[in-house]
Amino acid sequence: MVNYPDGRKARPAEHKTGAGGRGMELEKEINLTNSYYLDTDRAVIHKKPTPVTIVKVDYPMRTAAKITEAYFKVPSTTDYNGIYRGKYLDFEAKECASKTSFPIKSIHEHQIRHLDSVIRHGAIAFVIVRFTVYGETYYVDAGEMNSYIRTCGRSSIPYKWFQEHGILIPYNYVKPVDYLQIVDQRFFKENAND
């Protein structure tokens, strides 16, 4: 990342969105990163489609169909999955607008159970959390986060917890959310500099 001439650190631009668009900027950056991984044959990781049932479609023009009513078929599991260096990866990505904490209700119980399940079967599972106010994106081990959620007795996880237990993902223009560098450090130490 390029810094300012006076030495201040540049941060990715903060994007304010309503509840409906929350997470879209992080998702775009992860998708861009995943495209880079795929194009360079480093990993095969994709966004999982959300299963929906279409109820009503309007056709304002013959060539332009518009879905006007739909509902989720079943609760989705996590946002992304794929394979890297022979290991299955599964992760959730969340944006948080708070300066002080991440609301636990942002991660649903079925997602926590799913992450626990894939961990039991040998997957590398994690959560990517972006604090938009600070322009900081953290990699957090899913097992550690799930354990904290179950035992903390709180409705949110303090920002400080992410600083202490998460790993800050440095911003990179080509790979804006280069989480595989952290996967390398944690799981493939002998080849972390590849």
Residue fraction in strands: 25-35%
Gyration radius, rounded: 18 Å
CATH architecture: 3-Layer(aba) Sandwich
Question: Would you state the CATH class?
Answer: Alpha Beta
Q: Briefly note the CATH topology name.
A: Trna Endonuclease, Chain: A, domain 1
* Class of secondary structure makeup: alpha+beta
Tell me the series of helices and strands, N- to C-terminal: HEEEEEEHEEHEHEH
Counting DSSP E segments of at least 2 residues, the number of strands comes to: 10
Quaternary organisation of the protein chains: single chain
For the sheet with most strands, the description reads: 6 strands, mixed
Overall geometric form:
globular
Could you characterize the architecture of this molecule?
- By secondary structure, this protein is an alpha+beta fold.
- It has a single domain (21-48, 75-191), classed as Trna Endonuclease, Chain: A, domain 1 (3-Layer(aba) Sandwich), CATH 3.40.1350.
- Helix content is 27%, strand content 31%.
- It is built from five helices and ten strands; from the N terminus they run H-E-E-E-E-E-E-H-E-E-H-E-H-E-H.
- Strands 1-4-5-7-8-10 form a six-stranded mixed β-sheet, with helices on both faces. Strands 2-3 form a two-stranded antiparallel sheet.
- It is globular and about 55 Å long.
What's this model, at a glance?
This protein is α+β, with helices and mostly antiparallel strands. The protein is built from 5 helices and 10 strands, in the order αββββββαββαβαβα.
